[in-house]
């Protein structure tokens, strides 16, 4: 099914008017495919069967009209099809978003109303790399559902503008595709639309202008295409708004060749931006790919994505804490958990020693690896001179290599002159791998990778999981020695356990997520193949 969908979306890409992509500096364009499932989610849904969520007290009835919003560009009905229905007879009034929001406004939660993206929708206009103002803020109320009506549709929050998409633990905001609303997608579908793109004014490398100095206002990038979706600047504290309790489903549309959108794409986004409680489900490319900038991420659920679950490029520096990540159940598809990449060019502003140097710090994560054919060849790929510290993590990859490191610049000792933090660090990380757990290339061999991992305190390759419900710590995990992440970076929370979920009473993931054959998050979470009706 996934291969068929990919062919269909490539054919559709020939008429796509945008050219926005999701490849890193050294990225591998095609995600892997194959057939192994370890372990199965508990309980296991039936693969490929859409299961509409029951409607308490009756069906949804379409509202009579769309709400009025601030600004001259109002919501509209899409011509001959002003309503949309699912297979259970629920009906919603379709309120189509304008192509551009030019004033601060709010999309309210209204019974019987659903919002549609007719194509690319912009929040404000690009304010430039050196600006400091906020032009437009798009507020989205808890419980709002926004669907893409075409494949090349996506939401772009331009530099100098904000999004405040703030759901709750019981009323998440959902971004998805029209077919999901109608109940026509399964747990194996993907790549139906573009996703959400945040564009900010923080520092990046790999400048569009060949002579521009990386990390300055002269250094900006288009979002890997001629899309006029520019990002980059010199303000690492830039604020693009807030996204909390948000689901992004079935994204990753193929625009052309190696150009794909992913679920969430923060590009040049600053640390003033709040991103937490985000689920990206069944993207045909990465779950989240962050291009430069300094955003900190908390409470991520990454399920069924076909390339990397968290990919970071072009000078990203930030922290990520509490991550549940699982490759798709019922199908051997997916690349890896992390692709951590600094740069891969030969110019001063895009080489492996271009500054800012990428430094990813991640704590409290649990990753379930099911694919045997991902193009990275390992659950985690580190390359291009990037710095990395992982703490309190669990990697379950019994059929694959766990760790691959490329390039001698990635494993050299610390050098303050190059802002190089030194060799990667794996602290309180437990991994279950196949018979070839370590890989290296470009001057790094497997023995060197092994010595780096084994130098990490409290880390082990002899991990035999006792996880319950796929990702909840059991006796084995509880017995592992944890390290306080706050000793690594003050931005982290203090924790005393390894993994994303401490025990059965730790339910930060419940209610705002959706269930699929890949992972079940309990009875308070609905199905990814259906839209909530309350």
Automatic annotation (TrEMBL):
PROSITE patterns per the record?
PROKAR_LIPOPROTEIN
> Positions of the region Disordered?
34-56
The answer, when asked if Signal is one of the entry's keywords, is yes
Alphabetically ordered keywords of this record: Signal
Skewed-composition ranges (Pro residues): 40-55
Q: Give the signal peptide as a residue range, or say none if absent.
A: 1-24
Q: Which domain of life is it from?
A: Bacteria
Q: Is Signal set as a keyword in this record?
A: yes
Show the PANTHER family listed in the entry: LIPL48, SECRETED PROTEIN
What is the official name of this protein in its record? Lipoprotein
Task: Give the species this sequence originates from.
Answer: Sphingobium vermicomposti
């Amino acid at each position: 099914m996934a291969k068929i969908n990919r062919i269909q979306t490539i054919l559709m890409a020939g008429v796509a008017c945008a050219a926005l992509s999701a490849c890193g500096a050294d990225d591998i364009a095609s995600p892997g495919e194959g057939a192994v499932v370890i372990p199965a989610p508990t309980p296991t849904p039936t693969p490929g069967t859409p299961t509409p969520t029951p409607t308490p007290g009756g069906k949804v009835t379409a509202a009579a009209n769309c709400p009025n919003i601030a600004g001259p560009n109002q919501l509209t009905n899409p011509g001959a099809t002003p309503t949309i229905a699912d297979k259970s007879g629920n009906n919603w009034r379709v309120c189509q978003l304008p192509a551009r929001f030019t004033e601060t406004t709010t999309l309210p939660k209204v019974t019987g109303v659903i919002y549609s993206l007719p194509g690319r929708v912009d929040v404000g206009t690009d304010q430039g790399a050196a600006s400091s103002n906020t032009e437009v803020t798009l507020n989205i109320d808890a419980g709002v559902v926004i669907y893409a009506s075409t494949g090349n549709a996506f939401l772009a929050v331009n530099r100098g503008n904000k999004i405040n998409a703030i759901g709750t633990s019981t009323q998440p905001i959902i971004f998805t595709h029209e077919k999901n609303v109608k109940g026509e997608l399964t747990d194996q579908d993907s790549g139906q639309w573009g996703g959400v793109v945040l564009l900010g004014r923080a520092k990046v490398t790999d400048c569009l202008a060949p002579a521009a100095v990386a990390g300055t206002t002269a250094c900006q990038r288009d979002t890997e295409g001629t899309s006029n979706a520019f990002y980059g600047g010199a303000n690492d504290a830039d604020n693009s708004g807030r996204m909390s309790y948000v689901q992004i489903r079935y994204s990753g549309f193929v625009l052309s060749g190696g150009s794909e959108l992913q679920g969430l794409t923060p590009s040049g986004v600053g640390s003033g931006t709040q991103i937490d409680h985000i689920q990206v489900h069944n993207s045909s490319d990465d779950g989240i790919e962050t291009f430069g900038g300094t955003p900190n991420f908390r409470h991520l659920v990454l399920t069924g994505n076909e390339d990397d679950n968290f990919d970071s490029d072009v000078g990203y520096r930030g922290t990520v804490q509490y991550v549940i990540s699982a490759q798709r159940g019922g199908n051997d598809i997916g690349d890896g958990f992390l692709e951590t990449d600094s740069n891969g060019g030969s110019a001063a502003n895009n080489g492996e020693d271009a500054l800012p140097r990428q430094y990813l710090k991640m704590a409290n994560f649990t990753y379930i690896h099911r694919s045997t054919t991902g193009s990275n060849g390992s659950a985690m790929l580190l390359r291009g001179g990037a710095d990395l510290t992982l703490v309190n993590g669990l990697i379950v990859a019994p059929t694959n290599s766990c760790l691959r490191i490329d390039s001698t610049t990635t494993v050299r000792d610390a050098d303050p002159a190059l802002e190089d933090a030194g060799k990667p660090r794996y602290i309180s990380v437990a991994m279950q791998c196949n018979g070839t757990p370590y890989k290296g290339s470009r001057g790094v061999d497997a023995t060197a990778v092994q010595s780096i991992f084994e130098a990490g305190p409290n880390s082990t390759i002899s991990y035999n999981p006792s996880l319950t419900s796929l990702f909840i710590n059991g006796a084995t995990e509880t017995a592992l020695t944890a390290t306080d992440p706050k000793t690594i970076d003050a931005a982290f929370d203090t924790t005393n356990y390894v993994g994303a979920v401490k025990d059965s009473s730790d339910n930060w993931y419940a209610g705002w997520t959706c269930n699929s054959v890949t992972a079940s998050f309990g009875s308070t979470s609905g199905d990814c193949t259906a839209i909530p009706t309350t």
